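--- STAGE predict ---
source: upstream dedup step, 1 unique chain passed
mode: sequence only
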Amino acid sequence: MLNNLLTVTGQVATLFLMMAVGFGLGKMKKLSSAGLSQMSFLLLYIVCPCVMIECFQVERTPELVQQLCVGAVIAVACYLVYLAISMFFFRRCPADTRDSLRFAMVYGNVGFMGVPLVQSILGSEALVYGTLSLAAFNVTTWTLGVVIMGGKQAFSVKKAIINPGVIGLAVSLVIFFGGFRFPDAVSSTISFLGDLNTPLAMIVIGAQLAAADLGGAFRQPVLYLASFLKLILVPGLTALVLLPFGLPAGLYCALVLLAATPVAGTTSIFAQQFGRDTVPGVQVITLSTLLSIITLPVFAVIAKTISGF
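--- STAGE serialize ---
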């Protein structure tokens, strides 16, 4: 187990070193807020869909189809369970803080950190499970997430259907079930763009941390509670609840790893979109990301040890 822990810690450390590059560039003012916005747009609308499309260009087998269907149901069910649990916490906080921290407990940084983490630790063969969870993330953020932050009146069927994650998934499923293959030039282009996901996402996260109030994030007990719930309670419950189902090792490990990711950057983005105070969201993103340096390797080793991956 010690060897596994050291190996996983090294892989996670690689991701955080890339984040350090972004942090340094942010502190040196070499990455502006406008530049980060453009990089985030590139990741969200181009790179992430390319990752999904590339992952689904695999041979369709009855076993894989069954695993993906089971994984999709479980991923969505997990978000529903996380949301139900979050309702028991932060009741005494002001509305803006309460809703931001509940959102933070439910949604982890699946796209920018989770998918690269799955690829780095579990290998490319498990990446399809990560992208499946990313699709579930996109679907539920534009449904459950919108209701958390904006109330029922803010829900939009159009936004729930037309977003990069859902569109990328739709294209991926057409390719997967239709058995289509792109010409070599197109396939290579998609692959190269998908390869940008890990380094570009880590640099963006690092630069965002450079602009955050790190001192404020470490001074509020409620932020530690939110980080504990997201980094320990949620992945711990996920690992225990899924254990009796006998899931394939890659799927089990991916779901636990993704549950252990720090708070999603979408937390502060949604807070701003729906006219909420963005400070609690930014602070809990900052604190949970820093603390995940410790917790992520632990849960990665736990998941791999339990599943025998």
